[in-house]
Amino acid sequence: MRKPVIWAVGISKLGELYRDIVPDYVAQADVHIVDKGYEAVIEALERLPAGSVDGIVAAGSNGDFLRERLALPVVLVKVTGSDVMHALARARRALPASLPDSRIALVSYARPAAEFERFKRAFHLDISQHTYVDAQNAEDLVHRLRDDGMAVIVGPGLVTQLTERAGLTGIFLYSQDSVRAAFDTALEVARLGRIEAQRRERLDTVLRHLHEGVAAVDLNGRIEALNASMAGILGVTAADAVGRTLDTIAPALDIARTLESASAELEAIVSMAGKTWVINRIPLLDQGTLTGALVTCQDSQSFARVDRSLRSRHRPRHLVARYRLDDLIGDSAAMTQVRALARRYAQTDSTVLVHGESGTGKELLAQGIHNASRRRDYPFVAINCAAFPETLLESELFGYEDGAFSGARRGGKAGLFETAHNGTIFLDEIGEMPMPLQTRLLRVLQEREVLRLGANEPVPCDVRVIAATHRDLRQQVAAGLFREDLYYRLNILRMVLPALRERMDDLPRLTPLFLERALARAGARVSVDALQASLLPLLASYRWPGNVRELENLLERIAVVCADVVDAREISRARLVEIAPELGTTPPAFDVSKTNGGRTNSTMGTMGVTGPTSEAAVEASGAPMTGRERRAALELARIHSTLAACGGDRNAACEALGISRSTLWRKLRAG
Asked: Alpha-carbon distance 513 to 507, whole Å?
């Protein structure tokens, strides 16, 4: 192995000092004394093959100039306190006896020598100190000092050379000890550089034999090495890529988070160059210190074993089920039975059909079943089938390929069934799903595979389905609005969530829970127990068309309005009814003739007409109705009842019913 090559750069006196010392390093290094400075050194290096020089020793402005412009390690000869003392001692001997110490000046590069200031104060020296930043500045300074009457100037090689040209006495500042220390440092840096080069060569050998794309970056994200596979993936040559930041070549492979946190990110999925890739980002540590990172990149279709990680491991926060079955609050017999049945259902993978009115907690139940099942560590994906138009719902559920339709995302998109792989998908308001999509859903349930829009090959998916509706699907089937075969596929495990009016015994448990949360959010100081005592009689007399959701929202409203109240006794019953008018209303009878079931259309002026939501009231009208008309009558009855309970406040009614204002308007007009 060749000895390290060191260039000792210095002119005049520093060069002479190098020549005295270099023979002592012949056995350790090949030292070349370069009697040049600044650009001339850089030009000489550019004429040599890369890697010909391992390090440079220089001083002063010359050293700083080279350090800023070269990738090679540049070691500076540093001035020590001993150097300053010995140089000043020589300066005093060189100063004519008739002249005072004030005729001596010390000149250093860039910043004053702190050692000199301490030495000056300790020995009460009347010697001035000056600094320079470049060659021209140094020449101007020497001329000014000469004009000020200085006789001896102490400084680096450039300064002493200029001093002697100006007819003054120049004292060289550096000592052999300082130069030897710089040489020793340069040799150590060269040795470590050799070790690093050998390590990098071994890494390159390993990288060349890997089929997956691999790139190593430094702490700044600049590519230090990459193999041919990664170069092919990025569409660059290795020579062009090294030295550039990875994110400028491939933003999708951004490594910034790994370099910031020093933590690995494994099996992330990214789209790049029209393909899906599995990416690993791994921090590189040297004795516990972060030195860079490694990025590996593999085509997702090149191996099947990564399938589980592709679709399940990378779970965004919104795909995590937050609630458990114990979050279904209530000690009533109905809720106790619901929780017990849900725990039993959670032990299987069979499809569950949940029936319940709006606001009863159907999604909370679905999340609880998921978290109690073996699929708890995998995604929980929820979608409301009534919230999307048919075409958008299809692409959301089943995904699409690149170019499947105008406006399709480049690279395509996985549907929610694929996203939920190994986990659970919750299909809320399944009764609103259009018939064409019901056919596609039936195939997914039967074949356990999904065909994206525009694709030819189906994608296997292992998903547990929980569906929910507030409608009677059997009547939907009879009316031709829901596929019978899909209904039987969904109705394997059936659950019914009771309405709040059917479990009023749970109010004393639900009320303080929601009230405490609402008061805390509002920053209220009133006692929960005291306010609850005033509220419970009113709450117990209300029918709760919006169920638990309406209860929670109503308590939120009361908490916000009463945020500044300290004593609950200040909140009278009348005040509570003023805040929540629905608590003081008694729903009147509902005239079913106002619905399509009675063959009479309501007008906009009848929107204030209200009534109970009971099936008995509709049946009692005696009007002949088809199945579809009967369902419409029931729905309209419920809407009018809720509007009455909300004092005609359509926003509150929409919130209680779980529908938008436009949907409310449409249903009232249709009625």
From this structure: 10
